Amino acid sequence: MPHSDPEDLALVALGEDASPATLEHLDICVLCRDEVATLTDVVDGVRVPAPLQRPPARVWEGIEAQIEQARAAEPIALESRRRRRLPLLLVGAAAAGAAVVLGVQAILPDGGADPAGVELATATLDPLPGWDAAGTAVLEDRDDGRVLRVDLPGDVPVEGYREVWLISTDLTSLVSLGVLTGDSGSFDLPADLDVTEFAVVDVSDEPVNGDPTHSGASIARGELA
Ligand SMILES: [Zn+2]
């Protein structure tokens, strides 16, 4: 079965008359229909949606008059525009510079100090048997709440991902703080969480299995004091 001539398919896509043989073939050939669909998309993308209309004569006359006016005024206009633009540019640059200075000051409120909160407690994270990872956890009181900063450097080969938990000192209940990626992370604490009860910082190896509970595979652990 020979496929339709590409030119015939293009005609169909353009909405022109096609030969009965082409139309007949299109009825039974998916490939050629696809080709027409593709060509139609192209045509629709190119075609001007509404037919072009000649504007009334007075519109042209108006446009021509404006062009003439603009041509006549151009040398002067260019001159004055140039003169006006330089001071504007300078003002713009000054404003941008001020914004940069303000931005830097916002990042460094104390002239370059780290905007850390007040340290409430720290924990030394010791590796659990079978693991070789040690670090620290620092509980900070910041303007917008308490934050636990966890540092667990080193290349720890985990099976899944690392999750940070606060566990009650009797090890019966626990709260997930989030996923630790990289060597360190900061985790917001729930506002009402009693850290004297949930004082054990735990970092676990969690398999990617959709189970939100602790895997039981703790990497490192320490108590806030
Ligand atoms: Zn075909």
Automatic annotation (TrEMBL):
Q: Which residues form a coiled coil?
A: none
Please state every residue range assigned to the domain named Anti-sigma K factor RskA C-terminal. Answer: 90-216
Q: Which residue ranges does UniProt annotate as crossing the membrane? A: 88-108
Which GO cellular component term is one of those annotated? plasma membrane
Region Disordered: which residues?
206-225
Cross-referenced InterPro entries, in alphabetical order? Answer: RskA_C
Key words, A-Z: Membrane, Transmembrane, Transmembrane helix
Question: Looking at the record's lineage, which domain of life comes first?
Answer: Bacteria
Q: What is this protein called?
A: Anti-sigma K factor RskA C-terminal domain-containing protein
Source organism: Serinibacter arcticus
